[in-house]
Amino acid sequence: MAERPEDLNLPTAVITRIIKDAIPDGVNVSKEARLAISKAASVFVLYATSCSNNFAMKGKRKTIAAQDVITAMEDMEFDQFVEPLKNCLEAYRKGQQGKKDQKKKSKEQSDSSKDHPEEGGGDAGSDVEVDDNENEAEVEEEEDEDNGEQAVSVADSDVMIISDASSD
Amino acid sequence: MADKDESLQTCTLPLSRVKTIMKSSPDVSCISQEALFLAGKATELFIQSLAQVSLEKSTDKKSLQYRDLAEVVNSIDTLQFLQDIVPKKITAREFFEMLKQNEDEDEET
Q: Which ranges carry the Transcription factor CBF/NF-Y/archaeal histone domain (chain B) (predicted)?
């Protein structure tokens, strides 16, 4: 998966933004400190992954589930993250459910859904996003085909005119 | 309220990158979408708390330096896993003194 070593770092711009949001305005964060936090975050992901995976394996499951991550936080003694994470999970599930409903609706309405692309709201689920993009792509293709036909018919009429002229 | 929900169910960190890091762990086979999202969120919380705690411990409240982070990592038990990642900086002189001390101890034993 990871072809380059940089792929295992988290993007600095995002890290900087999270740090800035967390501390009061006007506090200067040195470049070295930012880099250290970024590396620490990557290691935190790995540590959390290994702990979560242990819990998944204990339960004889191959897939790491949401509960495994929450249990891992308790195990790592980051208990203060458990409550916020539970809230996030609840909101995320609600959002996903909302998206599924939205998708159903948009399938029923088929074409009319493309007039209101903003209705979906959140942008969390990558699956749903991909589907949206595919839909858009299809629509664009259809439009292109339409244009193509028109072009052909124009060309036909051009030919007609030319042939008329030559017959005179 | 809608804004709060929005921030709860979206992750600022790119989940694809988080997934790459998670998958680089050798024993991991599959990660559910929910677990991936929670891992991203947890990392976000972790970055926030690391920055906040370091600033609290810092003597200068106007800037956050590497030594503040190293100090925090060294003093808090739950951050012990970061000790090799964010080590305390020492001067070369201190290092050589440590080296000498170790050698002396070795000779004594």
A: 12-72
Q: Inspect the interface and report whether the beta carbons of B61 and A44 lie closer than 8 Å.
A: no
On whether any CB of chain B is under 8 Å from the CB of A16, the answer is: no
Q: A33: which chain B residues are within 8 Å (Cβ-Cβ)? A: 54, 64-66, 68-69
pTM, rounded to two decimals: 0.73
* Per-residue pLDDT tens listing for chain B (109 residues): 455 667 788 899 999 999 999 999 988 999 999 999 999 999 999 999 999 999 999 998 899 999 999 999 999 999 999 999 999 999 999 999 999 999 999 888 7
Same domain, B51 and B76: no
B45 & B75 share domain: no
**Local structure of B63: helix, strand or coil:** strand
Contacts of B50 (CB under 8 A, 6+ apart): A37, A40, A41, B69, B72, B79
Can you say how many angstroms the Cα of residue B69 is from the centroid of all Cα atoms in its chain?
8
Tell me what ipTM this predicted complex has.
0.88
Structure tokens of B31? 């990660």
* Same structural domain, B8 and B44: yes
Domain ranges, residue B36: 1-57
Domain total for chain B?
A: 2
Domain boundary pick from B57, B73, B88: B57
CB-CB under 8 Å, B82 with A22: no
Contact B50, A40 (CB under 8 A): yes
Nearest to A30 among B10, B42, B66 (CB): B66
